[in-house]
Amino acid sequence: MGVALQKSRTRDWTYYLLLTLSFFSMVNYILRDTIGHIPVIGSLVPAWKELIILLLYIAFYMKSKAEGRFDWKSSRMHKLILFVAIAAVLSGVYNWVFDPETLRIAPKPYTWVPVHLDLSTFVDGIRTLLEASLYFFVLNALLDDEDTIKDMINAMIIAAFLVACYGIYQKLSGVESPKSWVYSEQESNIKLRVFSTIGNPNALGGYMVLITPIALSLAIHAKDWLKRSLYGIVALFLMYTMVMTYSRGAWIGFVAGMALYTVITRNKWLAGIGILGLVAAPFVAHDVVSRLTLAFTPEYLAKSANKGRVEFWGRAIKIWLKNPVFGTGIGTAGDSVATRHNMPGATWIDNQYVKLLAETGIVGLLTYLAMLFAPVINGAKSVFGSKQKGTYLYALNAGITAALFGMIVENVTAAIIEDLNVTTHFWVLIAILYVGVRMAREKANA
């Protein structure tokens, strides 16, 4: 990996803007914790991400003007994002026209009450769902240099490594997390679920799910031992931090992502290591196995059925059954937007897909799933059919494909993709994957 950045053909302000974006997790933390508490000035900090997006589009405009053409490099993904936006808008229109009902949680028993979608909640719902896709549109069109992509990926890995190191420091220094972060008396031995600079163990786990497969893939396919060692050591730090979050969703997502990676790269050695790891887990990672199996115990299921996932998933399904086509309206059923705007009965549903089913109906969910799986399918086809297995782009595309699939799986247990840090990296990686697949295809046809 190296400390020094690769020499790029162009190191103008756009290049450094791209690096700033790649260090998003660190920059956001520094801004939030250094000036975020200052009156007036601190209130402007959340807008820095919009400033980054605006500057990226200005950079694309300047590049296109210099080249004499505007090429967005349109793909099926562009259309799918548009379809998701249309489905979200239709859910809002349905709410305004038909005035649907939602289930109020307290006091029990549940009661059906009207849920009115105001404009601010509607805009916030669309923003939370799709604002980060703006990175995809501009980066897919802006990036055309493999060296710059290498630098961006290295910067992302370095940032994740620093975040992981801080999480490990929390573990070693005896920091304790709130007791509410564990779900059972059986887990009283878990004093800390590391949260690092991210502030939440589940979000930190999601962040590790997105970066770890990339570091692993680059380690596996590196051509010299120095790079292989550096990427490998970083990957170990990231995996250890992921384990210390005690996030079941992150663990399952990571395993799912690496399983897909093993299939598309046809790596028999990795498959063997994975099987060996699963067999050895009960003996060398007892706490991990215990936390995973706890989810199937009567105690956990009883608690989950009372103000837990089972209860709130069931509530969301009931809401959907009453509004099956377009749902109750984006931002009206649960998770960050609904709770932020005090919607009736709003709570954490902890399943991105069930939540969207309730809010946007079957139309919204199907278009959303199509959008999420499009880059995974695109990357998997490119990697599986590639004849250039020794190249950087092959390793990168395989790692990103695994990371994206891992995130899709993790969101079955929580709407982690709504976290600012996670959704930013998710969409930036989608853009880099599309550019990487395009570059790999061009090299193969050259």
Automatic annotation (TrEMBL):
GO molecular function, one term: ligase activity
Topology class, membrane: Multi-pass membrane protein
Main localization (coarse): membrane
Source superkingdom: Bacteria
Positions of the O-antigen ligase-related domain: 234-369
Keywords: Ligase, Membrane, Transmembrane, Transmembrane helix
Keyword Transmembrane among UniProt keywords: yes
Membrane-crossing residue ranges in chain numbering: 12-31, 37-60, 80-98, 152-169, 203-222, 228-247, 268-285, 361-380, 392-417, 423-440
Entry keyword annotation includes Cell wall biogenesis/degradation: no
Pfam name, any one: Wzy_C
Annotated compartments: Membrane
PANTHER family per the UniProt record, alphabetical: LIPOPOLYSACCHARIDE BIOSYNTHESIS PROTEIN PA4999-RELATED, TEICHURONIC ACID BIOSYNTHESIS PROTEIN TUAE
Protein name per Swiss-Prot or TrEMBL: O-antigen ligase family protein
Organism: Tumebacillus amylolyticus
Lineage, opening ranks: Bacteria, Bacillati, Bacillota, Bacilli, Bacillales
